[in-house]
Design a protein that fits this description.
Order of helices and strands: HHHHHHHHHHHHHHHHHHEHEHEHEEH
Structural class: mainly alpha
Number of helices: 22
Shape: globular
Largest sheet: 5 strands, mixed
Length: about 500
């Protein structure tokens, strides 16, 4: 008695064909051009705005990659301590050719992401097999945050590309000993670590490959010593220079906030708040949509005896180290987990490969498998709708305020942006100046910034508590624009600054 293929099985064999990966890549490109021409708003708008500002400042103020500039440096040039701004610099170079358009940054991110997907396929194909490679690539590509963050104005797509390219060429070098592959791997891994220092965790799976090939001799292997030394020296040179910028300007993204900012929070990792926030809310819910998380656990348990998976287990171990070291960064920012969803996707893809190819599953288990895959699609779609919904222009008062300031405020005027330190307002207004919370908008603060050259205050009323807003608006500032959501105040002349405030300050 011959077995009948299920309707879904009818289409799954196409995943094994020669050109399947190219068909998948085409579909993935379509998914990633959604909102291509969206301005810099929405999820992680602060990160996107800072990145876009650096690219724009390179374009407008000169192509010195050693001195990245932000918009919130007040009346200073805005040189800032940051990660190595290679992504921003590449986009600035393209601005020189095509003009200043944010969609260029999004296109570059999509380009990097599609190459990353192909490299993931090649890595899994080389280490495991084609079906697993296709399923892993497929799963990785439909995870909702992987779609969303593959088309944002952020360096993460280049970071992920650099990690995957570095690993892929390292594998090729291990096999062939060709200098070209060694050099390419070195360049890409160095780039990844310069973009994000914690990417050093990727050294663990690379070390696994080296020890698998050379045993303990890997410790004294000259090419590997050079590989490690080159990366560490590059990091030292850039980040010591970047820290000197901070010493000179006081402007930083908080790279070295050990124990107080993104990393080194050892007490925090032993709390339920951390565990729940990182592993359940971020990874399981947002990234893997729960269904993917369940299949990740299945894959992780099922393949622990398979030698071809040991590299990916070492990658998972490295990911855990990363999650512990960069505890608060991973707790507050879901995009911090983007690189580690790569090995997660491999185990999810492996679980789907195993069960879809199984001839021993009964009709109930097969139905459950198909329902799980459908739910993965639906939950991914729901998460995407949520994230894309944050780019709805009609609901973004800050963006409309930025456009209004373009009409009413002189291009080179310095402003105070009441934006809760979200540089999106300054970026979209194409202005430079200072950021603050409403609670910081004191009489002393305003007069101090006015004396430093501030000409206007840009504010969204939703940022204020009701009593704060009423007290501030009662001071008698000169409004050049006000509606139910926003206001623009002129500090352009001494007469426009409320005399009663100046008198109050003199009497203190």
């Amino acid at each position: 008695m011959t077995k009948k293929n299920s309707p879904i099985k009818k289409y799954l064999p196409s995943l094994s064909t020669k050109y399947a990966i190219y068909s998948l890549l085409f579909i993935f490109i379509i998914l990633r051009i959604i909102y291509l021409f969206s301005p810099i708003i929405g999820a992680q708008s602060w990160r996107q705005a800072d990145t876009a500002a650096m690219a724009r400042n390179f374009f407008e103020n000169g192509y010195n990659i050693l001195y990245p500039q932000i918009d919130w440096g007040g009346n200073s040039p805005g040189f800032v301590e940051s990660e190595f701004p290679i992504y921003q610099y590449v986009i600035a170079l393209l601005y020189k050719i095509f003009g200043l358009h944010e969609f260029i940054g999004r296109l570059i991110s999509i380009f990097f992401s599609i190459i990353s997907i192909y490299l993931l396929y090649k890595i899994v194909l080389k280490l495991i097999d084609q079906k697993t490679a296709l399923w892993s690539t497929f799963i990785y590509s439909i995870l909702p945050l992987n779609i969303f963050y593959s088309r944002v104005f952020m360096p993460e797509p280049l970071l992920i590309l650099s990690i995957l390219a570095g690993i892929y060429f390292f594998i090729l070098w291990i096999e062939s000993q060709r200098l070209l592959y060694f050099s390419l791997s070195l360049v890409f891994i160095t780039t990844a670590c310069l973009i994000k220092i914690p990417t050093l965790y990727i050294g663990l799976p690379l070390a696994f490959l080296a020890f698998k090939k050379y045993g303990w001799k890997a410790i004294i292997k000259p090419p590997l010593l050079f590989f490690s030394g080159f990366i560490l020296i590059s990091l030292y040179l850039w980040y010591s220079h970047a820290h000197q910028i901070f010493i000179d300007t006081g402007l930083s993204f908080g790279i070295w906030g050990y124990g107080s900012d993104k990393w080194g929070n050892w007490d925090f990792i032993f709390t339920w708040e951390y565990f729940n926030g990182v592993f359940f809310k971020n990874i399981a819910e947002k990234h893997l949509t729960w269904i993917g998380f369940i299949f990740f656990l299945i894959g992780l348990i099922k393949f622990y005896k398979h030698k071809e998976y040991r590299f990916f287990y070492s990658w998972i171990a490295a990911a855990l180290i990363y999650l512990i070291i960069v505890a608060k960064g991973n707790y507050f920012h879901d995009y911090y987990q983007l690189p580690i969803t790569i090995p997660f996707a491999v185990f999810i893809g492996s679980a789907f490969t195993k069960y879809f190819d199984s001839s021993t599953l009964n009709i109930y288990k097969k139905t459950l498998l198909y329902v799980s895959l459908a739910l993965l699609f639906l939950l991914s779609g729901a998460r995407l709708v949520d994230y894309f919904g944050r780019e709805d222009l009609s609901k973004n008062d800050k963006y409309h305020l930025a456009l209004k300031s373009n009409e009413l405020v002189e291009t080179n005027s310095l402003v105070i942006a009441v934006s809760s330190y979200d540089p999106m307002l300054l970026y979209n207004a194409h202005k430079k100046g200072w950021q603050c919370f409403p609670s910081e908008l004191t009489e002393e603060f305003i007069l101090e910034k006015k004396n430093l050259g501030a000409k206007y205050i840009l504010g969204n009323k939703s940022e204020f508590k009701t009593n704060e807003l009423n007290r501030f608006l009662s001071n008698g500032f000169k409004f050049i624009y006000e509606d139910s959501a926003s206001f623009i105040i002129s500090l352009h002349t001494s007469q426009s600054f409320p005399l009663k405030i100046i008198q109050n300050l003199k009497n203190r």
